[in-house]
């Protein structure tokens, strides 16, 4: 609840100012007044506020290691994906804005630790991603000695978002073939949400798997020659805008923008 979240913020290293940035409330300094924090949580909701705090915390933790390259490009891609998730989620009541945002975060959560531990591999990854889009498993293993989705699942759990979300993300992002296994409905639901965000990010209209494509009625693609799905059409329009112009969200940063973050963090 809100009181519990405020108590957590007060007794931790969480950056409450990021909530004000996300809510569009002017903030002065690193420790905003309690009334403004409460107003921000009231506007954003407890679940979205929790996600924003977690992403901001993870980003600040990685930037403290002072990565000299890659960080800004990676974070911009991260925020594009989170906003794409938000767009999709807020159009579908069965998903919700904050759940879509978390799904967007999952796709890049596994790359954040490499800002601290292997900038050379991360830089090469970004170059290959820009050139080819999708990167094969063999190359990922050569670069990182693992696949980023595996690291991402650990990050998601350490941030407190649960095993179901982490397992669903692994199934979607890892392209794992597990037909012989039975998973709880909640894990399959997370798999579908992450798969939808990934499809939209990659410029595909919907996930490849029919089961995932049709899991949420509001997102069901129209049949050939049939009437358009207005919800899906609206999602496509908004996602295209984010991909074209980039996300303007800055609440993930320790400071209000990339230039000031670079200056203050000594990057």
Question: How would you describe this structure to a colleague?
Answer:
- There is one protein chain.
- This protein is an all-alpha fold.
- The protein has one domain (68-265).
- The chain is built from 15 helices and no strands.
- It is globular, with a radius of gyration of 19 Å.
Defining key terms:
65% helix, mainly alpha, 267 residues, 15 helices
- Kindly estimate the percentage of residues that lie in beta strands according to DSSP: under 5%
Number of structural units classed as domains: 1
Q: Radius of gyration in whole Å, from Cα? A: 19 Å
Write the element-wise H/E pattern from the N-terminal end onward. Answer: HHHHHHHHHHHHHHH
Task: Please give the largest β-sheet.
Answer: none
Mean of residue pLDDT? 90
Shape: globular
Query: Please, how many helices?
Result: 15
- Helix/strand/pairing category: mainly alpha
Helix content: 55-70%
User: Low-confidence spans: pLDDT under 50, at least 5 residues?
Assistant: none
End-to-end CA span: 37 Å
How is this fold's topology laid out?
Layout lengths: L1 H9 L6 H7 L10 H11 L1 H18 L7 H21 L5 H13 L3 H5 L1 H14 L4 H8 L3 H11 L4 H11 L11 H17 L8 H4 L16 H16 L12 H8 L2
Short description:
This protein has 267 residues and is mostly helical. It has 15 helices and no strands. The radius of gyration is 19 Å and the shape is globular.
């Amino acid at each position: 609840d809100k009181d519990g979240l405020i108590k957590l913020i007060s007794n931790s290293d969480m950056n409450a100012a990021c909530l004000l940035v996300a809510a569009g409330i002017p903030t002065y300094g690193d420790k905003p007044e309690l009334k403004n924090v409460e107003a921000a949580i009231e506007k954003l909701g407890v679940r979205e506020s929790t996600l924003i705090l977690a992403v901001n915390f993870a980003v600040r933790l990685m930037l403290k290691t002072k990565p000299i390259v890659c960080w800004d490009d990676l974070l911009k891609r991260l925020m594009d994906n989170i906003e794409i998730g938000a767009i999709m989620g807020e159009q579908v009541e069965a998903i919700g804005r904050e759940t879509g945002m978390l799904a967007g975060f999952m796709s890049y959560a596994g790359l954040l630790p490499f800002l601290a531990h292997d900038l050379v591999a991360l830089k090469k990854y970004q170059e290959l991603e820009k050139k080819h889009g999708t990167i094969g498993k063999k190359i990922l293993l050569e670069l990182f000695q693992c696949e980023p989705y595996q690291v991402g699942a650990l990050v998601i759990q350490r941030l407190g978002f649960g095993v179901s979300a982490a397992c669903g993300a692994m199934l979607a992002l890892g392209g794992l073939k597990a037909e012989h296994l039975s998973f709880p409905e909640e894990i399959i639901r997370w798999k579908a949400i992450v798969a939808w965000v990934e499809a939209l990010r990659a410029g595909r209209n919907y996930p490849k798997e029919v089961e995932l494509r049709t899991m949420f009625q509001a997102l069901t693609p129209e049949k050939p020659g049939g009437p358009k799905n207005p919800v899906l059409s609206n999602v496509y329009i908004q996602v295209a805008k984010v991909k074209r112009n980039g996300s303007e969200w800055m609440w993930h940063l320790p400071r209000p923008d990339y230039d000031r973050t670079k200056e203050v963090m000594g990057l």
